[in-house]
Inverse folding.
């Protein structure tokens, strides 16, 4: 699986540009703030329908323009796939092989991608919402049913939270059980899939981390222990917990339990990574998680995803840079950096210089 070419028009700082990628190593290089990360962002957006940087799609439209267009041709096991996205101030339209898709779920699974940048330190150092975001994006690419359950869960959660703010307490108490039956059904599926995913991720991340650190440190990842049993058992247990805490939720004005409050336990050498890991340790741990994610895609889908490494090399010491480059053998990798020669270490690569939102030819 790989991206064959990428077309950008009025996207970020690009006017109009076409990139040709090889199935192996591709290096986008140039000075800072020239558009390298913007190109990487476009690739990930076409794979997932999600930007790792923008809160709103319209932020990706070039200043002074009213619409951006991006598109790519991807090669997979079943032939080529064309993906296009038109982004306007009021929304977006995505097409797969020329057919407009009604749901983002229909985009997922056409081409897989794993994205890593220095901002991924948030996965280790920030609050649980960053770790949930990582799980949601990764699992959604593997399972459209998970993405659908998550979307419906979030809608019910929003409606439930709005209901909890209603001052008519009798109405609230009568209506909550109706919402909660649906809420817990989707919550159980989300919890089960996350637990299964983490159980696969943990040993792979531990192996990748040992490789990057020469076995000097041990990374451990585990799901929260409250989710045990099949979906029916999980749904019943969560329904009981919510039913027993209506007063608490009404007092708080929001739903205080469920997968939207979950977290991961991540430790390095037995110590909580969030509170005790150094910058270097957190960076290596986050990178190990991403390398593990790559292996999960290969195991689950039978082919590697596109690996996007945005400005990562400058943040790693020389031995870890070399180790990382060696792990890119056999899969399409897109690396952004300031100097191509400093990341190749003898590897052949498709080198593309970016200057002012354009390829410098």
């Amino acid at each position: 699986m790989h991206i064959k070419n990428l077309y950008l028009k009025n996207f970020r700082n690009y006017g109009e540009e076409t990139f040709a990628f090889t199935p192996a190593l591709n290096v986008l290089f140039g000075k800072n703030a020239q558009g390298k990360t913007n190109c990487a962002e476009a690739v990930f957006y076409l794979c997932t329908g999600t930007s790792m940087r923008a809160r709103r799609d319209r932020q990706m439209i070039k200043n002074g323009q009213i619409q951006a267009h991006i598109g790519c041709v991807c090669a997979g096991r079943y032939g080529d796939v064309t993906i296009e996205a038109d982004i306007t101030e009021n929304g977006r339209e995505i097409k797969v092989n020329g057919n407009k898709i009604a749901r983002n779920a229909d985009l997922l699974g056409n081409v897989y991608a794993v994205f890593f940048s220095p901002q991924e330190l948030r996965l280790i150092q920030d609050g649980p919402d960053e770790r949930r975001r990582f799980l949601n994006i990764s699992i959604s690419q593997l399972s459209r049913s998970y993405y659908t359950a998550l979307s419906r869960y979030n809608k019910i959660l929003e409606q439930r939270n709005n209901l909890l703010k209603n001052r008519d307490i009798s109405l609230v108490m009568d209506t909550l059980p109706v919402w909660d039956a649906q809420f817990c059904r989707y919550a159980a599926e989300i919890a089960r899939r996350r637990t299964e995913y983490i159980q696969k991720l943990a040993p792979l991340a531990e192996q990748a981390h040992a490789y990057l650190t020469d076995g000097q440190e041990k990374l451990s990842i585990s799901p929260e222990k409250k989710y045990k049993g099949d979906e029916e058992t999980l749904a019943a247990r969560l329904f009981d917990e919510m039913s027993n805490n209506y007063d608490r939720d009404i007092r708080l004005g929001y739903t205080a339990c469920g997968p939207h409050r979950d977290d991961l336990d991540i430790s390095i050498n037995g110590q909580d990574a969030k509170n005790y890991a150094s910058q270097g340790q957190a960076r290596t741990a986050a990178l190990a998680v991403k390398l593990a994610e790559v292996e999960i895609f290969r195991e689950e889908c039978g082919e590697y995803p596109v690996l996007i490494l945005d400005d990562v090399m400058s943040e790693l010491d020389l031995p870890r840079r070399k180790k990382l480059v060696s792990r890119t053998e056999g899969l399409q990798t897109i690396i952004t950096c300031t100097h191509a020669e400093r990341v190749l270490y003898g590897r052949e690569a498709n080198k593309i210089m970016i200057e002012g939102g354009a390829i410098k030819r």
User: Anything to note?
Assistant: The radius of gyration is 22 Å.
